[in-house]
Amino acid sequence: MTITFLPSGVQTEVSSHETLLRAAERAGVLIDAACGGALKCGKCKVRIFAGSCSPLTDAERQLLTPTEIELGFRLACCTTAEGDLEIVVPDSHGGSTRKKSMAQLPEDLVFAPAVNLRSVTVPRATMEHQVDSLNRLRATLELPQLTVAPAVLPDLQQALDAKRGKVTAVLRGEELLTLLSGEERACYGVSFDIGTTTVVGTLWDLTDGKALASAARTNDQSVFGADVISRIQFSLAEAGNLTLLQKKVLFTLNSILTELCLAADLSPRSIYDVTVVGNTTMSHLFLGVSPKPMSRTPFAPAFTEAQTLSAAELGLSVHPRAAVHLLPNIAGHVGSDITAMMLAAGIEKRSGNHVAIDIGTNGEVVAVRNGELVCCSTAAGPAFEGACIRSGMRAAPGAIERVDMADGDITIAVIDDAAPLGLCGSGLIDAIAALLQCGALLPSGRLLTKEEAADLPPCIAARITEADSAPAFRLAEGADGVPILLTQQDIREVQLAKGAILAGIRTLLHELGISEDELDSVLLAGAFGNYIRRESALAIGLLPTVPVEKIIPIGNAAGAGASMALLSLPQRQRADRLSRMVRHVELSIHPVFQDLYIDAMQFGG
Amino acid sequence: MTITFLPSGVQTEVSSHETLLRAAERAGVLIDAACGGALKCGKCKVRIFAGSCSPLTDAERQLLTPTEIELGFRLACCTTAEGDLEIVVPDSHGGSTRKKSMAQLPEDLVFAPAVNLRSVTVPRATMEHQVDSLNRLRATLELPQLTVAPAVLPDLQQALDAKRGKVTAVLRGEELLTLLSGEERACYGVSFDIGTTTVVGTLWDLTDGKALASAARTNDQSVFGADVISRIQFSLAEAGNLTLLQKKVLFTLNSILTELCLAADLSPRSIYDVTVVGNTTMSHLFLGVSPKPMSRTPFAPAFTEAQTLSAAELGLSVHPRAAVHLLPNIAGHVGSDITAMMLAAGIEKRSGNHVAIDIGTNGEVVAVRNGELVCCSTAAGPAFEGACIRSGMRAAPGAIERVDMADGDITIAVIDDAAPLGLCGSGLIDAIAALLQCGALLPSGRLLTKEEAADLPPCIAARITEADSAPAFRLAEGADGVPILLTQQDIREVQLAKGAILAGIRTLLHELGISEDELDSVLLAGAFGNYIRRESALAIGLLPTVPVEKIIPIGNAAGAGASMALLSLPQRQRADRLSRMVRHVELSIHPVFQDLYIDAMQFGG
Predict the structure, then answer these.
(1) How wide is the angle at C-alpha B299 spanned by C-alphas B298 and B301, nearest 5°?
(2) Dihedrals phi, psi of B155, to nearest 5 degrees
(3) ipTM surpassing 0.90, yes or no?
(4) Of A42, A146, B13, B187, which is the most exposed, with the fewest CB atoms less than 10 Å away?
(5) Measuring CA to CA, how many Å separate B404 from each of A597, B428, B429, B603?
(6) pLDDT given at position A101
(7) Do the Cβ atoms of B133 and A302 come within 8 Å?
(8) What is the pLDDT of residues B435-480, one digit of tens each?
């Protein structure tokens, strides 16, 4: 039986046992499955276009709306083919568009990349002085200590023979990476930010430090679960899964590399340096190291320090001898993305008291008091990325990104002005802030029932409905005729997430002995930080109570830090220093955390 | 069409275009072809057992005797199949048995291998001290500077998990090669001597320095020519040939590794260290570097210094992270085998004046005067290994190894007392010495004709016959009914070879300002040095005129040096020092060499 995935037209053969989700995974078609196929999240919706498939399951009856079922939607994790099948994979699967923006680097960054080119002409040997090629090259470059790996020697001999000794040395410090014949000028590097959800790559010209292109793709591991815990569980479930996860993320990186090389019209062989950041689990999976320690106390990872290996060893499609440098992690749940955030935020150089927060799939916090650094990870979960939220979706076209109160009703703004398909993180926070404002939601987190809402403005009251035997709020009519709801369960998810983050921040402030009043700034990193409405974040109590102007989005700080480490060797050393300087605070055994957590789950400032 | 090679029974499919030599090469069946298939050497004899093949060529009519033709012998390089074919590959193809003897190492060798094992128990992390696995291992080993390649991290995490932290670290200095679970004791190393003709490997226990097994195989590159020049020519003939030659020698090494592991009953994964020596061309081919510079003036190689790379990178079947250490070469035609010879001979430590000679496929000479070292390579050619000699063969069963004058006739001794098949190097020198002694051969190198020999003892005179319109001497009736001859042409080949070696020695003595009388010893390295009769070598004038007791065979010095470097790190440093200390003398532009050469071609002391 053949499955055809539309609109891409990719085809694959399946047996009657294989679910559409697994078949898609095998065929390289990306279908989001936040729960990793555990029949829980209802995200892996596909629409049957032609052909017959297995009957509707109970799980699908619970997770799909009657309209969706009528329109032919199925969950890919529950459905098998019963003959040739054509299925439509909705647009909402796949990459977020928001992460593509180029990283902003500090203006005073010292440009000092690891790799440099030098073109020289190496004289020939003579009968009287039969100096070998390698030592003639050393003498010409005036680098008597030049190291050359044995694997470079074939290139060396060939390059010297090709153009009468005119060569270009590709140098990493005093190491010869390769020798090219003639005069070459192409020398590039790529920085990667491996998110649990999205991987972003930026291509840089290493001769002048200019950014050439940027590309983002959903992490191809996503078919095995939305968060790090489901990835870890998958890695432990069966022999071979760990390798599979490593292959998936390498596939994502290689796809991004293809896109970058196409965009900038250059050969992947002229990419000689790569930097990578990611959370600790992503870092482990990237190197094929079991992330098991991150799933159990005491969360001590296999390694934290920076790692450098060759692209060939890893299987990355750049010059085989390019070095791939993974920045240092800090703890089991505080990864090199946070090291990179500290780099980009210049955190240790700021005077006064500051908090930097990265709300990605997890929520990590760094606090600083005049150079003293502490950090923690909070079990925020992926609620703000749309997982576990009934109508949640990524910040892609069709996502509601703004919700406002106006004239006694709510108004929405949708990414790309498209017909609304769901709710992304910034819209979710806005929506809760709006519901708090109009009184439909109590600070305790309880949504009013239709009866209780009788005193609210009629347009608001009319939006209150019910889902899963609990109150729900109708934000909009969906593009496909399915109403976009915010349910009581959704609100509970947000409470747990925002409570964890706020309690984490407060625990760190307690560690440093400072109060919220004494904060000079709250730095928001990540795509989320750029798009969140600060007032709404304050209104729901996601952030410490500070004047709104002290909340400063700092953009894709992880990506910026990875790029800084690519363009400037001193920044790599700074990253190593920062990762050792910052003290990790384990919240789960911290004496004040539990009390702070319960308190922080209340909505409101 | 199928070809079956007997006695091995190996089969392969062939087209009507492919010669038997190429088919054998493809099938991994070793047929010696000194000229590399250039229709010149006549060594690639096979016997057609059943089936039909292409008609006899002119080349075969010239290179095979009528009896051989009658018996069904053909040259594999000239013959193609015309249907299914069974052919017998004679015993004389394949490995020499003489190189298998274990290397003798100096008794005062300091045992200090590069790789060591250490078994420890690594404590678990705690919630209070979430130290990563790598740093807990460092602390337990008390090696704070321990380096660990990223590729080792997966093993590290797995080994720590398997047996409650009980692990064995495989250490190369302060580098973790790998981490094994539990307590392990298996730690081995192999030293290789890559000869142009024969490769010898010796397996050592790196925990106690004991030799466990030794194995020799004909270098699988041999099908592409007997000497370094034909290998170089083959490497340049077509793209891909260089890689093919590298694959061939790696195949030989891997075959030897299999044999060694079988003999000692151990896993190739417990081999953690490898040392390699070989001439400069073999060193280049081993690393896949073009040996082109060795074929043209000024013979400046791509590299000379020692090279270390990982087994995985190279494709050697030992532990993938084992280091393969190639000892330093000295010049284009003085390789790391000569560095190893100097190591084994303790050459720089000897007081007085000495000469060390390695007569392999080439002839390299080192001379020393109270610690001052000079070396040269002589274009001796492979005559003493049996190539270019009509009845020449390797030192294998059936080879005439001794020739004596007794009772007015010559007597012969054959290896393994087999029926004679040909003449090996020691027999060749003996034979010439015997002919000089009885007067059948003049010091100028001319064989008497039958007429001129009338005055010689009748048994001797009766042996004089004719070949290629020139005198020839019948040494024996061959096992196959073909007489074993020493031809005028053979004698000219020996003259050129021995003249080159003697003139090389004399040039070095000239460089050092010493006379032959002042020599304290003449050290003979290599299998040949062990089996040559010193009196005969003096009689024909292969060596300087010294009392016979000053000629000292030192065995397989190249192999011994490779083993010393495996077992003792200080010896590797000594090898590096020796390779820089020794001054290379280029004979072809040396002012006295030509005169000395013409003089040295005369037979006699």
Answers:
(1) 125
(2) -60, -40
(3) no
(4) B13
(5) 102, 11, 11, 18
(6) 45
(7) yes
(8) 999 999 999 999 999 999 999 999 999 999 999 899 999 999 987 7
Best of A128, A181, A289, A329 to disrupt the B interface (most B CBs within 10 Å) is: A289
CA dihedral A317, A318, A322, A325 (to 10 degrees): -60
* Helices within A393-444 (DSSP H only): 425-438
Pick from A157, A303, A331: CB nearest B302: A157
Q: What domains, with CATH codes, occur in chain B?
A: 2-88 (3.10.20.30)
Chain B residue closest in CA terms to A147? B307
| CB of B77 closer than 8 Å to CB of B54 | no
Which stretch of DSSP H or E encloses residue B95?
none
Number of Cβ within 10 Å of residue B570's Cβ equals 12
Contact across the interface for A309 and B125, Cβ inside 8 Å: no
- A570, A577 contact by CB (below 8 A): no
Q: Determine whether the interchain pair B589/A290 forms a contact, defined as Cβ–Cβ distance below 8 Å.
A: no
Cβ atoms B194, B282 nearer than 8 A: yes
Closest residue by Cα to residue B123 from B66, B165, B76? B165
For residue B323, give the chain A residue with the closest CA.
A150
Burial (Cβ within 10 Å: 0-12, 13-18, ≥19) of residue B15? exposed
The model carries a pTM of 0.80
Name the DSSP class of A294.
G
Q: Is it true that the peptide bond before A7 is cis, omega within 30 degrees of 0?
A: yes
- The alpha helices in A142-212, defined as continuous H runs, are 153-162
Which chain B residues are within 8 Å of A149, Cβ to Cβ? Answer: 309
Strands (E), A285-433: 307-310, 323-326, 353-359, 363-369, 372-378, 399-406, 409-414, 422-423
What tokens appear for B202 in the block? 């010796």
DSSP state of B16: S
User: Mean of the pLDDT values across residues B202-223?
Assistant: 93
Helix (H) or strand (E) holding A252: helix A241-264
